[in-house]
């Protein structure tokens, strides 16, 4: 751990002269870049120039170099490959596979090498012709390809013509990764993907359109088409090479059974990382798309150019595609501290991506690079969504304006036109107000909202779309909850000093979902509470949308079977849809109460999101869940809900814990649910029996629910990130009781979630 933090510290210290670093043995950073030819299973080696002060004339890595102060790792990797070999590649060709600490002493003690090396892999389809390289004479005297097995053997035998690397130590990862990637059992892989797919129950979701006017049905068709563009935008937000991966998998889905399974599981996850497996990669760069670059190297007659696999990392990037892939939290915070208050808002706001000046300079100057340093004091800078995603948002805005012209409801007209304008201006305030005031049979949520994908800070919003038909009867029935938010706020188990005096009644709309797109990967949401903009929450509150047909499908296909396995026979009868659905509604309402805009102990004004950063999403989901349970009991005590629901409410919540934890402890809802279950179990509110079933202790559960509600609300009110971290660390774990339940569910193969199909939207899209 100490070594790792020292590595981070090195990123921000002034650079030494290269000779001084190796003379004094100072720890420093460098990059290793390996070029791997897929068709021949060969690595490219360079022979170090005879004038080099370390390992002169020996065969070594394809390309390598020190990371200078002001440079990033990826920029250095790209620059070194271009300078040493004359190969200029975009960032999507580089896959960071591991970090390697190299410590050695050579040249009779005159050369001390203490390097943290970021090791990158570039995968080409075939070997690059040797005459296509342009070698830097002062660094490289020759290049050659060698089979990966032959090279491994030479290193293992410590051949004196090759720079030594311990293939049985850290550097063995290079060979192990490649071997696993290309020598795996295809049948076993197909079976694994089939098993992963079986965790999702396919269900057709539809709605009655008879209540829509002809004009609204025309608008619906335009909105579905706009949603597909929002989906494209979201794919890009996840990772830079994600769109090309999607297109490649779709194109090759019919070639083999394995290809079909890859595509089917990708469609559910919308990325190469599996939502239900702690974001473990189920694909590798070897499965990725192929791009052709005719100008990446010197032109060779008869050779069409360099073909490479677009890369993605095995570990899902915590910052998604919102930040440079080699940026960490320390670099961002140092940059943020140098900004004005207005600039900080741009940097930490929902609707911007963060980029590097050096990367932009590198791309602009292409392969004629001597020095990519710029005059900017800091390498990072923000780019608004309206600029970054302009090709997508302009098309979507045009469709929204057309749909707005057709819409029969004035409030829907206002929403669609204002949202289209927001896509181009990057100002979403008015369009979010219009969404809150929507009163239309055709219900639409479209835009950048949730921040779950940004696990680095929780700042950046992803694009999503939900289109549905309002269920007027169900909407009228749930009005009670929105109307009593102020009463709930004033009675929260929280010190009065932290309570808000003005909580606005939250409009609640119940819809039958017709189509969703964008950030709707993996486990499907049953409801949402928006917007997340703290300015609007403070001034106008929030609004809720409940997806009733999604809730019904989850209850029937998942929650009932879970209860049949995990809940004691005596309490099983208490699990019912009304309790499950009512808690879902109250969960969303409780996003709108409790701390949002806060005053820190120092007197500084802030928000819970900014203070808790990457911990905010999980804690907020836990808050909405547990405070929602507290709120239901409060409303029963006030005779606003029937007291006959009380046992059903608690037992349905118990069954729901096992449903959400199965989403994984890397996902915000899964984390939040693990926290709640483990707290309630530790305090005796949930009981495990010898037959591996669970029950609720009705005498204890009310007090325990209130105690956890108070704990979470107080942490949020104080903006106490350290306390949040300790709470999640202690309770967000896969404890023995949770393992017992999940193992039982695995035995009978209860689906983890649903994979919705949308026949109405499919019919519309077929007419495109």
TrEMBL record:
GO terms for cellular component: cytoplasm. The keyword rRNA-binding does not apply. Keywords: Hydrolase, Metal-binding. One of its GO terms (molecular function) is metal ion binding. It comes from the Eukaryota. Residues 26-168 form the Nudix hydrolase domain. Transmembrane segments: none annotated. This is Nudix hydrolase domain-containing protein.
